[in-house]
Amino acid sequence: MSTVIEARGLKRNFDEVEAVRGVDLTIESGEIYGFLGPNGAGKSTVVKMLTTLLAPSGGTAKIFGMDVVDAAEDIRLRIGAALQDASLDDKQSGREILELQGALYGLTSKETKTRIDELSTLIEMDAIDRWIGTYSGGMKRRLDLAASLMHNPDLLFLDEPTTGLDPTSRSRVWEEVRALNQQFGTTIFLTTQYLEEADELADRVGIISAGEIAGEGTPEELKRSVGSDVLQVRLSSDAGEAIAALHQVDGVEKVEQGPRALLVSVSNGAATVSPVAVALDAIGASVEELTLRTPTLDDVFLELTGDRIEVSA
What we know:
single chain, six-stranded mixed β-sheet, four-stranded antiparallel β-sheet
């Protein structure tokens, strides 16, 4: 495999604000790389630098071995990008947008028509000749993705492609991302604030927090790094006494107050469920729910950053 993206000490400042603070990245050909973090973490700023839309304040970044500052035009010919805000003219039709994109990349009329046919699973073909102003949010996102693919890019940047979409539209975008990668070997750099999206799609995940990489690995590696099963304990009584009691149970490693339940990290979940239930019963705790689950990327994010991702609409 060859290296497609290589960034070393990548930084970006906006006046006195350090938006990106020395990011290192190495992404190989054919990977789906998930860039996971909350709003304001620096994800979109990194994407704008890698797509040559924003000059770095420090460090270096290379795409296909070409510097993002010195070889910006050559890089743009080989990449596609569907950024957060779809730049679509409401007074154009979907077909006009795609034909314009094809013309900008030097495709002939025949090549453009063929490419639109190839992208028909992504585009709402029965609406392709309607004005974009009549499209739903999901239709606009899929059209924007199709436009970024018109020239068959070797590397595709997707900046939060499913934010605000309904579950059906989100699922369709996921299917297309997988197909692009599996059928055509397209390398994909996917930023997301959705833990499930990163877990479902990414070969490797980089977690960014406050402009810095907090952790990186495959989803399974990251989840194993947490090392513990988790018991979720939902109480209708005060949690303070319960937390103290749970700390006394053998096998309990950590107890945290989550947004909706106590999160009890245990070394062996199956063996610890019963002692936990007994300890809570002994203090008269009112337990509404007691469930066991394996670690998730949410647990990883909490472990690495001390916080949880709050997804915006």
